[in-house]
Amino acid sequence: MKSEIFPVKSQDSGNGLSTIEKTVFSDYKYGFVTDIEADEAPMGLSEEVVRFISAKKREPEWMLEWRLKAYRHWLTMKEPGWANIRYPRINYQDIIFYSAPKQKINPKNLDEIDPELKKTFEKLGISLDEQKRLSGVAVDAVIDSVSIGTSFKSQLAELGIIFCSMSEAIREHPDLVKEYLSSVVPLTDNYFAALNSAVFSDGSFCYIPKGVRCPMELSTYFRINAENTGQFERTLIIAEAGSYVSYLEGCTAPMRDEHQLHAAVVELVALENAEIKYSTVQNWYPGDKQGKGGVYNFVTKRGICKGDHAKISWTQVETGSAITWKYPSVILKGDHSTGEFYSVAVTNNYQQADTGTKMMHLGKNTKSRIVSKGISAGFSNNSYRGLVHVSRNAKNARNFSQCDSLLLGDKCGAHTFPYIEVRNNSAVVEHEATTSKIGEDQIFYCNQRGIATETAVALIINGFAKEVMNHLPMEFAIEAQKLLAVSLEGSVG
Amino acid sequence: MLSIHNLHAGIEGKKILNGIDLEVKPGEVHAIMGPNGSGKSTLANVLAGRADYEVSHGTAEFQGKNLLELSPEKRAGEGLFLAFQYPVEIPGLNTINFIKTAVNEIRKYRGQDPLDAVAFLKLMKEKMALMNIEQSLLARSLNEGFSGGEKKRNEVFQMAMLEPKLAILDETDSGLDIDAIRIVSNGVNKLRNKENAVLVVTHYQRLLDYIVPDFVHVLYNGRIVKSGSKELARELEERGYDFIKHETSEVETV
Ligand SMILES: Nc1ncnc2c1ncn2[C@@H]1O[C@H](COP(=O)(O)OP(=O)(O)OP(=O)(O)O)[C@@H](O)[C@H]1O
Ligand SMILES: [Mg+2]
Where do the H-state alpha helices sit in chain B? Predict the structure, then answer.
């Protein structure tokens, strides 16, 4: 999408700043563009465009109606302004809402995928070839708006697990989709969710049958490639009674001078005794050192513990995007259900993040745990915003929140906005918050032991973020650690 | 190994070191004593390369290299180690992990292959026995919540792991209990050989009963005002610093 260049003054970061404040540019490793032909919707948003998308996807009538309802509602809404972020107005008529790589739709198997596309994913370290995949991880890859292939499908099917693109689910499993889509995040929930509902083009769908423990990590990899496009994906995960699934999403985008809009919706449904573990490693292009370009990431993620003893756990490592607006939440409806939120959000240069969670305690004996670690460097702004709500009937609700901020330098900001609403006096809600700085003395201590500053910073921030990183699936923890270091590269020196 | 000539240094415009001369040869132990605020830690930090301190004058050579030109991590790579008077805490950073990184970064600097997990563990067990340190302590976050004595033990343990050419121990004895002083000193003595040297900063004669110095220097107002044998330390213990202060003021007025 096109919009104004981020309004920042160009600053010479090398002058008169202490060693800790010196900010040098680190290259975004994933900023390449793949040269593939794309099939695009006309620019801008209208009922026509919504119909175009639905037709492109060969959707049934009910789905089109659902989208149009969302679109009409969106027209009546206003972009929210309460978050602690600043950005120029988004012109929704300058965005292409649908862009699909021009390749045979629905590859029968992964061999049919355009080699250029395959190469893109190889460059990202994601091989769609099952032989070459990380063992024990099934991947669904979504480029621009379309899922281009899912690995390990048949192996999962044997267990009755459905793991496919959202488009396929709409065609092949309409009953499940009708029952659960927008059951957690209503069409009208918020501005960006309504927008997503109108124009989403793909995403992942995942269904775990009763009593099945999914034997491998399920993973979706999102990438924005085409110019002036937004990415609007939709994810729905349903865990039937007594089932378990661990799911991971990753994302990158090319380096572009314009901002790109990403507005996703993720819905999780956990029935009785089911557990969903959802992990995100978000590494959208953050913009350059002056704040030019980067992805606007406006995401609605919510899960519901529908049955008793259900558990939903969100873990996120947010290092990318120019703006992050995202509050993965849990509705604790079932008695004895548990919600968890573990987050590391890193902002550098001119990045802005306003992220946190909502824990809605409705059932009895429900528990929630929030651990948020914000790391800010450069001229960035990092806010935690969280709500713990205990409703009138939620007897014996328990919440523990820990929000820690780490500052690198003194040009960045860290903020905490914890909201607590308690309507039942048997609740126990605890909140702890700390703010600290990486000290010159900590860096010097490491230097004295032969450890260079970059490595020292990596060690210190990984120590700071450890409690959250420990909740990532093993396969990704090491990658995520490296990512933390890379996103702060040059912020101290 | 280390030759310091007419070294002047300060911080934020305040002069602290006013012309230090010191010559340390391989195999030697030098003790540096002196009243609070005389500049002992400043000297240690300047040698280790702490950026806050500005060297305004003088030279420092370490193993034939101009020490003052090297970054702190390179000085460590060259074999200079500082056991800090006040070791810092790094929450969440596992101590063993930290030490492993240090060991391998220094090996890398010297063009050696990194130690693998097995070799590292073997080395660690050996040094743990030498310094009588518990693994449970090393399994914790670096210095976080360590008692004063535990922090000091962790410093000398790191010294043992890194096997430096020149170890500067800045008041490593303060905070240690009587048994710990003995254990730590024995450890330091076992690590001594013809090739390496130790610079001990201390206020107390007791440490020097164990780590016996070849030379004792008294630092006062940023200058070494008296040097002597280990007997000088004993004399200071008995008489305090006053006689030194008198002597220097006499010298200055002459
Ligand atoms: N960062 C600083 N800012 C201002 N003054 C400082 C700073 N660091 C050291 N000084 C001053 O320099 C002088 C020497 O300090 P230093 O720590 O070297 O003393 P010391 O000999 O190690 O003392 P002690 O025996 O108490 O450890 C003191 O007066 C101290 O206050
Ligand atoms: Mg001192």
Answer: 40-48, 72-78, 95-109, 117-131, 135-138, 148-162, 178-191, 205-210, 230-239, 242-253
